[in-house]
Structure formats: C-alpha cells, structure tokens
C-alpha cells in the first residue's frame, strides 16, 4: 500500500511583507469530507505499515499487562472521619474511588468499603471517558465531579448524593477541565468556571445546589491572554480565584464560609509579577516573584493585606513553588539542584527533608485534612516504585506506609539510574536523567530513547514505571533531557527557553543527543527521540535541525505549525500562548518563531523514520497541524524512511482514556521504535 498523498491547494499567508506558501491550509476545515477522508487514509496506511509489527507490539503489550498487579490501591487519605482512596483491578479499564469510615489507619482492614464512584460503570459502552476533578462537600454527603466523553476541554458537573447513590438534578455544562469547581463550606453552593467559544476558562459562577434559578456570574476575565482558575485553601476557609497568564497573576478571594460575600481582590495585576495565596491561622501566605526570581514567601493578616513580612529569608538557589500549611506546621514545596524538595518551617528557617537516593521525585498527597497529625508524601525515582511516607507533623518522624506493587519479579538493584550533565553550546550544563538495566552497555553503545518537553516552566521529573520494564529488559536505555523552557533548575531555566530564547530548548536537546553519542551510550543509528505536545514541537524542530542524530523520531500530538496557530486568535487557547511563544503579529516575534517552526522549515533532505500522532477532537493542538506537517514531509523528504500519521478519531489531546487501550497505543509506538533501533 502506498502512502497517501494529500492534494495541494495553493494558499499564501502574507504578513510583514513575508509570503508563506501553505498548500495544505485546506485541512483546517473539519467539516470538509475530504479532510476526514485524508485522515482515514493515513490511518489505513498506518495499519498496513504496522501489520508486520503486530507480533512485536503484542509482545510488548503483553509484557506491560503482565506487570499490572491484580489490584492497585492508592494509599488511603484521611479527610475527617473517612479515609479516601482509589483502586484499580486488572480486568478493568478505569479506576474505582472508595472510602472507609474508621477512627485510625490501623483499623481500616476491619471496615467495609463504600464505593463512591466507579468509572467503569460510568463509562458503560462508551469508548471514551474522562473524569478529572472530584470535590466533596464539607459534610461529605455529596460528591461533585467533572465528566467528559469526547476528549475536549468542555466538561459537565454532576452531583452524586452519597447517602442514596443517586445523581441530583443539577447538571452544569461547559465547565473547564481542571481548576474549575469548589464547594462553599455550607455545602449549599458550588463555584465553577466555564469556557468561551475558544475553550478559554473565563467566567466564574455561583450555583445554588437544587435551585432552578439562573446561576450568578461573579467575575469575567476579559483579557484574552488570561485564563481563570479556582482552588480552595488547605484550611478550607477561602476559594482563590486566579486570573493567570504566562507572565502575570491576579488573585481574588471568596470567603467559603460566607459564600454570598463579594469577591475580594488581593493585588492588582502587574506584568511580570506572579503570586499565589493560601491561608494559615489568621494570616494569608503570599508566594511571589516580585524582586525574587525564584519566589519568596510573605505573610500578612487576613484583615490587613498591605502589611507584609517575610516568612523566611529569600534564597535564590531554592525555587519555591507551593506552600502546604497544616494547622500546626508550614511545609513548602519546590526545587533545588534540579530535584523536587520539601521544607518545613522552623524558627523562620526552611529545613529540608532528607532522602536516601541521589535522584528522586517528591509530591505532597492531595486531599489531606488541615488538622491531621501526619503529612503524607509520595516518593519515587527511576528505580523505586511509588512509596508513600507518613511524616509526623510534630516530631518529623518518617514511616513508610505504602509501596506500590509491581507484578512479577522486580529487583531495583538490577537497574542503574544516573543524573548526567551535558554541555550546551553556550556552556550551560543541561541535566539528563538516565535509567538502564545492568549489562545494557556491556557490548558497547545501546539502543536509547531520548525524551524532552521544555515549555511552560513544566518539570520533567524522574518517575517509576513498571510498563518501562519490558523495554529495559531488551537493553533499551531511557533518558530524559531537562532542557531549558522547563522549570527544573529554577525560574531562570524557564525564562531562558521561551519567546526569543526558545531555540535554546532545541539546541539543548541536540547537544544532549551528541553528548550521549560522544560518551558511548548510543549511536545515531540506535537512538530515538520522543516528545508530546510542546515536546512534539521540540522533537519536530530537532528533526529539521539535526535529524541525522536519530534513527527515528516520535512527535505525539505535536505543536508544529506555530505561526498559523499563533496568528489565528479564533483557535482555542491561542491568545493564552502569546507570552510563551510570542505574538507573530509583531514582526520580530514572527521572524523568530518562523526560524524554528517545524512546518515552515521542512526541507528537501533526508529525515529519520517518523511516527506522528494526533487526535481529531484535540482542543490544545489541532489535528490539522500534524496532518499538514505529515503531508508536507511526504512531498519534500528525499529518503525512503517510514513516515506514518495515526489520528485518534474519537479522542483528544491525551489519547485513549482506558488504561489498557492506552497501553496498546504505547506498545504500538514502542514496536515501531524498536523495529528501527534495536538489533536483536
């Protein structure tokens, strides 16, 4: 079967006296039957190409499934009289959420489980289900949750009465995917955020549960470069309302104990100033980057927001990202030396909690009681599975209370993890995280998969995955390059990889690949690059700049037609992205973005094997970006390497929703990669 060749319809973009030819612009029209026909033809070609790899894909899939425990139970988290947890069964696609009423953790085994939400029952026969937020009222008699069945960012609120198991008549549509729903303390009202036509979260509403009256609009974010999010402080007293852009933050407060009071502004927005607010005792805690690139922590009285003092001295080597107040102690979460850290405040000093491994990831478990006597912390590394520690808040004593199970044999001592440092062209040291099975390098350079992201200040952290084990058993090395544009090394790391510094992300990744070759870990014939979304932009740009360093490149739901998207403010989320990439209406921004945009820089030359994915309903990276890019690559590349485009016709940005469907997709991708880089 021959690869589909998309028709070419002449179209030109003309701005800043620059003409861009775009023969595949017609693919933007989702209602055009020819568009769907082309995507379906590409899917048929994908199936044909993958037929010889079915056995390999099935073998990988079965190896992954073999690592799935018969039952996976998350550590129960105490909230009032109940302990809440989720569990997954090996024969089920989705999680089951449950609780037990017990006086202490030690008595949980003696208490009957109450299922509060079974996503398997909820999914029914539908191919796609996403449930993101779940919020309990203070009395814990009602559960509000967000549900979506088409892969978009438009969700619906449903409210379940946990006493009867029935759904209430309340049904609120057009709610954003996350950061968009909270209860008042009395349980009479729900506050929620809806999206506009571009799926930008922008309106805050108050809904009276059970009422048929119209909901009250409390605030509308009118600046198109800002999005609106809400969350509740750990104490439960306030709901924080965030007007947020890449560069700037403005926070308002709703008194959750007095839900009919007006919304209160903390600080007016000032470009470049980001801040967050929480509540502790009689004070507000404010984490801000004003005159502190890596953020400083202030406090002030709830009644006097202008009189502020530093909680602890600012340290530019610590990147403070969040506060976690409990009734009697204050914990702070952030990063130092490229790793996540947790500090506890003692005598105006932040004391770092210590851990045994040199490479790890920490997170504070959500949903814990403000007045609990323990703090639950999740710990993992590339070789250590998810482990939950209970830290006694008064004494600081740590105790392991849960370790995620790994089905089958697993000995962490048989695997190596390293933090390496590659030198970028400008001398910057770029951190790399590596894992492989002992012996993988005994016969010289090994097959290696290099991943990266490098945008939005997002962190790529070391994590454990049992599904990685079948690949490690084959001698594959996994490496993540923490390139600039992420936040791993602090706020400056992000600033040095965005807007007019964006090319640093690409060159960091390229220099990381060269480092891995020079150090003898792999060769260009044995190395694959993989990245999703903005990480798809990363590896897509690298395919133009240094494709010869890789045998295969896997851009998943890649953001590759940068200029066309950023010039069209009718596209979902475009306006929110201008502070990240630049606004190409500005000629200087336009020229810089054009210099790296993967679609605009396709050349007549050889490219690696490429495995590209997209989702027809993706609101974040439109399907037509990867589709156009694939079509242009087909006509211009001069090699005989394989190029496939797989479109998920019933899902969005995150692919299949069921975990086994998701594993099948992953296994297919790995089969394609290993077919190219693995010499068996």
Automatic annotation (TrEMBL):
**What are the record keywords, sorted?**
Hydrolase, Protease, Serine protease
Keyword Kinase included in the entry's annotation: no
Q: List residues of the Peptidase S9 prolyl oligopeptidase catalytic domain.
A: 463-676
Q: Which residues form the signal peptide?
A: none
Keyword Ribosomal protein in annotation:
no
Q: Which domain of life is it from?
A: Bacteria
Official protein name in the record: S9 family peptidase
List the lineage, top down: Bacteria, Bacillati, Bacillota, Bacilli, Bacillales
